[in-house]
Amino acid sequence: MAKAKIFRLAQIVERFGGEIIGNPQTPISQVATLENASSQHVGFLSNKKYRKQLAETRAGAVILHAADGGLTRLPRILCNDPYLYFAKVSALFNPPIVGAAGVHKTAVIERGTKVPASASIGAGVYIGRAVKLGKGVVIGAGCCLGDKVEIGAGSRLHARVTVYPGCRLGQRTLVHSGAVIGADGFGIALDEDGWRKIPQTGGVLIGDDVEIGANTCIDRGALDDTVIENGVKLDNLIQIGHNVRVGAHTAIAGCTGIAGSTRIGKHCMIGGAANIVGHLDIADRVIIHAAAVVTKSIRKAGSYGGHPAEDSRNWSRHVASLRQLDLLRERVRDLEQRLSARENKN
Amino acid sequence: MAKAKIFRLAQIVERFGGEIIGNPQTPISQVATLENASSQHVGFLSNKKYRKQLAETRAGAVILHAADGGLTRLPRILCNDPYLYFAKVSALFNPPIVGAAGVHKTAVIERGTKVPASASIGAGVYIGRAVKLGKGVVIGAGCCLGDKVEIGAGSRLHARVTVYPGCRLGQRTLVHSGAVIGADGFGIALDEDGWRKIPQTGGVLIGDDVEIGANTCIDRGALDDTVIENGVKLDNLIQIGHNVRVGAHTAIAGCTGIAGSTRIGKHCMIGGAANIVGHLDIADRVIIHAAAVVTKSIRKAGSYGGHPAEDSRNWSRHVASLRQLDLLRERVRDLEQRLSARENKN
Amino acid sequence: MAKAKIFRLAQIVERFGGEIIGNPQTPISQVATLENASSQHVGFLSNKKYRKQLAETRAGAVILHAADGGLTRLPRILCNDPYLYFAKVSALFNPPIVGAAGVHKTAVIERGTKVPASASIGAGVYIGRAVKLGKGVVIGAGCCLGDKVEIGAGSRLHARVTVYPGCRLGQRTLVHSGAVIGADGFGIALDEDGWRKIPQTGGVLIGDDVEIGANTCIDRGALDDTVIENGVKLDNLIQIGHNVRVGAHTAIAGCTGIAGSTRIGKHCMIGGAANIVGHLDIADRVIIHAAAVVTKSIRKAGSYGGHPAEDSRNWSRHVASLRQLDLLRERVRDLEQRLSARENKN
Questions:
Q1: Active-site entry in B41, B158, B176, B242
Q2: Is A176 a catalytic residue?
Q3: Are residues A77 and A220 in the same domain?
């Protein structure tokens, strides 16, 4: 996808640090997996599982942890965190591809909305009234932005994103196709003849440098806003209920659901398909495992999993216990027989 | 979002009942949380957790349970169900915002479809042949309605909803962005050389006053219809399989999946991320907890949870037992030692 | 939905095999459920649960297993697999309904893309540059196809599907509304000041005869491709992470999530709402039950379920054990009392 721009290992190390072993003039035109790399590619090793591939790779160079420098004779860059280093090198070779600035002739833009000259508005886009668009925003084909929406400078919405009226996105946000930002929260009250809808009059406030995955939904608040702080990364098919707050730099994997009014701390990592019920508080730096069902607030940093969720080590122990119940039952049966034998003897 | 229309407490009580304590002429222009209310706002208390906020609120008036009338000196409305009362007051101050009637010039409407003068059809909408639209329907930007779809009077589809051919929605239904109504059910039969698709020739029949959340999917039936009865409320990212029937006034929270041919009773409440397998019967007034995995029919009203789901009290007891297994194992070890000691003694 | 084309039982058996009992000239115009069939319909029985309906059906004929031939006096076709037979008969009466070939005047097609005369491109479609479309492809209203996408002959995208740049779909694929193919995988690396995005430079490669459900997401690979092999069937609201490989003829039910780099074998069946963590290997012909949480590789064909997943029979036994823990605890208490009694006696 990228043009064959070439960097020498020396140029890469000049930008990102690390130590070169081997020819610093080795030319690199792209990143690749060890398995599929060819001579102008740089590969990386961050997971021991792939050591065998290092022995067989045809990469021109590799990025390794300082401790692994002896595992190959290839030209190599040694560093403290090969995965992060690779991320930086990949970004160097693969800048985002963005269409030319301008408004597609099929886009519809209502009165009171100004489009900066640097913005790119795709085919079939609908933008309501009084929308504020920052410099360089990219709005993909088929997106719908309601009245009074705000999108910060440098943000990009891929094709077919919906943003309901009044929702605000920060700078350099990236939103994938099918995401829905600002639909009504699930607010209903039981009346004699059925459910009565509670108008959802809050909005959605999304910080800077947030990424939102495909078909993910972030509901607007019932009264106050739903808030996604700076640097949060959301994967696909996530449900964020009304009035949830997700703390800065928290990452959440796909299919996770967070029910209304729950507050997630900063720097948390939440595994895929987790479920967090409503009105809870989750502390900073909490790790929640895939498919965990969180039913109580978590006050302390740490690692949690299971259904219902508890400290991960406890959950692992309880699962192990459950799987040995047969054995325990046999021991009880044995005790019963031995004790009965003694009772009968006397 | 609403204009500053003002109601006096006396006018509110005249509409919705309840008892005023304090000045009945107190002017109210909007609802708000106790935490963020200002002097022309009315707040409410329905959850003990927020009592402290009642002491500190700057609201002009509050809605309270009759028993809580002594907790504040603010002008207040006393009633039996503050949450429901608040729902009604909020609806008074926040009527839905709807664009002007008319068909946007970029909408495409096929032959044989008539649009009532009172309807609003947004930009980029596609409507197939022989579609029936009731009075006052609102079809948001980018929606796609297949041939022979029917949408009852007063219904609203937000931006980017898809309705497959032949599906029918009742009156006053509300559908959020990204919802897909009437895609093929997952009907496949195993043949020697792989799966063979079973044509999904049934439709989807949705009653009156139904709400459908963002990116929720309701599949068409294999032969007969999939049915969502009156007053059902569905949150976001829900999957309703083919030939499911959801009984009237049942509410289902986000990320829940209901597999094919299962029948859910009336007035049920189903928590988020629940999973209900296919071909089951769930009775009326059943409560299913978040993340429950329902693998058997439920014949009796009550509360169910867990994986696999069982009576909630049993599930809680079993979880508690599991967490005390260490203790039980120690008791067994102790018994073994004591018994061995006696056996060796004799 | 289908025109009243009529086939005689004899004509059906000529095409699909099986044995007729009763009048071979019985006219059939459509398939139906036993419950709702009328005299020109053919019903089928494949699930014992519906035997009672066979006694009461008004169908003109029925499809039965050879062993069930004596259960009715209606004209009938006997075969080895009534469900599969019904699938074939239903396909005969219900061929897909496809609009006329041609490009809708509101569709936008960029330079370098040629549309075959046999293709049908719907209203409001956006197709990027250098896209390759096979013969007879159908692209529904509102779809967005990025640059260099490839769609094989005979494939159909329903309304509002998104395909990111460079993704390739095989022949006769069927994609439902809201599906997103090729959004960025969830690739982030932790840096001192937050998460750093890893460019997702791989693509998505989808084989022939694949079906993809509504609002399902298949992420593009981080470096190499995400691969969906021939004949795979995916239900709605499924998440397929980057670099996953799904083996040929595997079927996956709705709401399931498969995390990055996991490889699923061929001919697997995966129940709804299952969660499979990343970097695992799942063997061929594995059956995974609904809501299973798979945390380890599965090397052997078989049936797996639970949280965390294990052999299904073990999981069932462990659930039963858990539910009898009260009883075990009572037995231990009884032992303690009996042993104490003896100890005190002596």
A1: B242
A2: no
A3: no
